[in-house]
Design goal:
Strand order of the largest sheet: 1-2-3-6-7-8-9-10
Order of helices and strands: EEEHHHHHEHEHHEEEHHEEHHH
Largest sheet: 8 strands, mixed
Shape: globular
Helix content: 40-55%
Structural class: alpha/beta
């Protein structure tokens, strides 16, 4: 497995990226691989941790692809690697309601491509243009200053108290040579307040923590800058650019460890049991905000 590309890093060793060959027996380092290959490869990802937070059963049940997921994957490809967009995606020429359109879709799906409706493609073009028309976003995603869609794998023995090794993985939208990990997202509302709520609701800060840890372990150089570039799906496709604060990263680490997620993973691996919710009748209390809504006198 030879070196494919090298990501130049300021004040740090360059990052060597290898071509993925399909051998999962000794994954370690950085790889060029498709999104499908990454999700099929072993290792704990942020999305796995998020499902594990719901239950081990959910963690072992990957969600089925949805139109929103396919839209996001195709959009990322258009923004980050436009030259290879048609390799992994197909924009329909015929109406999907016609026999010709159905046959066209079936042919593209047989090749493993994401099928994109013309209206969705036009929307993606407008969103991508909005990102590239934003000076800071364009500068951060400069292909001469880093690399897109890089996957990393590392064995981490610092996630449990007894040094149990856990294979972890990341897939960075863009790794900037200034040691910045960048994630591109689309949203209904990219304003600071709305995206902050999205960070909490979807645990985006967990991703920031795990990715920065992975980059630090893999490169031997401290990474502490994680940036989100967020574009709105509706006109005028406003773009927000946000950096995870140190406090946010500490809260992510605290939350993951407080929930014992890595220990839960180890226990499930050793027992072979991946349970759902507790098999018992539990008393269920209304949360404080609901009680206050029923009785405003409660402080």
């Amino acid at each position: 497995m030879g070196e494919l590309i090298t990501i130049k890093q300021k004040d740090a060793m360059d990052i060597a990226v290898q071509q993925y060959t399909g051998d999962d027996s000794s994954l370690a380092g950085f790889y060029r691989m498709t999104n499908k290959q990454y999700h099929a490869a072993p290792g704990i990802s942020t999305s796995f941790l998020q499902r594990l937070d719901q239950s081990p059963l959910h963690a072992m049940t990957p969600p089925e692809p949805t139109p929103a997921f396919d839209f996001g994957s195709a959009f990322h490809s258009l923004v980050l690697e436009p030259d290879t967009f048609t390799k992994f995606n197909h924009v329909l020429n015929e109406s999907p309601r016609t026999n010709a359109g159905k046959a066209e879709r079936a042919g593209a799906e047989k090749l493993g491509k994401i099928v994109v409706k013309p209206d969705d493609y036009n929307l993606m073009l407008k969103m991508a243009k909005a990102i590239h028309d934003t000076k800071t976003a364009k500068r951060l995603l400069d292909p001469d200053k880093g690399a897109a869609e890089i996957s990393g794998f590392w064995s981490d023995d610092q996630l449990t108290a007894d040094g149990y090794k856990i294979l972890c993985k990341l897939r960075a939208d863009f790794i900037h040579q200034s040691r910045i990990v960048i994630d591109v997202k689309s949203a209904a509302d990219a304003s600071p307040g709305a995206f902050c709520r999205a960070i909490v609701n979807f645990k985006y800060h967990w991703q920031a923590f795990l990715y920065l840890r992975g980059m630090t372990v893999l490169t031997g150089t401290f990474y502490d800058d994680f940036v989100w570039i967020v574009v709105e799906k509706a006109p005028p496709h406003a773009v927000g650019i946000y950096m995870a604060t140190q406090e946010m990263l500490e809260l992510a680490q605290e939350g993951i460890y407080r929930k014992r997620l890595f220990l839960t993973y180890r226990e499930c691996m050793e027992s072979g049991a991946w349970p759902g919710y507790q098999d018992a009748v539990l008393p269920l209390e209304l949360p404080g905000w609901a009680k206050r809504a029923h009785n405003p006198i409660i402080e």
